[in-house]
Amino acid sequence: MKNIVIGIDVGISTTKIVGIDENGLVVNPFRIKATDPITSLYGAFGKYLYDNKIQLSDVRQVMVTGVGSAYIETPIYGLPTAKSEEFIADGLGARHESKLDRMIVVSMGTGTSLVKCDGDEIRHIGGTGIGGGTLAGLSRIMLKTDDIKQLSSMAMQGDINNINLHIGDISAKPLPGLPMNATASLFSNAKANATREDIALGLIYMVLQTIGSSCFLSSLGSGIRDFVMIGNLTLLPQCKDVYPAMEKLYNVHFRIPKYSEFCTAIGAALDFYLKNR
């Protein structure tokens, strides 16, 4: 596999890596966890090359992005190494995977960033401090675990009616634009005897719905109706319940592409091709 460009998204606790060939083909992305970004990056890089039988001489360029890329000041294994601005990488990766030219990219990581893509214009337009870090922190306090997989599994057995207040709880009929099952207030209906499973589901819904509402508000006046969701939180199975309901409520589209968790790494690699076309 010759002339491959390696894109690496170095996060706070997770590094994601992917190879992109000259035809834009995504080659076996994967992620690895570590306690520090340098260990995570070099561990991911070495394993990726080994698993995919890629020689150092096959690598045309390494592109790094993400908050952990600030720690990378020297070429990785002596290979040509450069940095891609994270928000540009978000936009390029989401555009490649969604095949859309006009959208808002919603990067659901520790917090959430919003990037507007309109043709070749890619611009960071804001974000929210609500994200995976919020979910882990609140779960640590309330449920004594910050294992997101465990939290998601618990939530599968929860009942959101024991946590959230819905329009149907406060009104005898739907309000204009608000069906009876729309959320009126997060956690406002929490029962004293709510189970751990109920609380887990409530926390996940709170984070996902807050992000979804932020997306819609960020698009007002732009005419954009497509939101491409990327990052680790897209792997939560509850996304399949939350976002279709919000699509109906707001008349928009929330899209989660195949390689949603790797879009930033994909975009970093594509950034090289963009700059050298």
From TrEMBL:
Keywords: ATP-binding, Coenzyme A biosynthesis, Kinase, Nucleotide-binding, Transferase. Its EC number is 2.7.1.33. The keyword Cytoplasm does not apply. The keyword Transferase applies. Gene3D superfamilies: 3.30.420.40. One of its GO terms (molecular function) is pantothenate kinase activity. This is Type II pantothenate kinase.
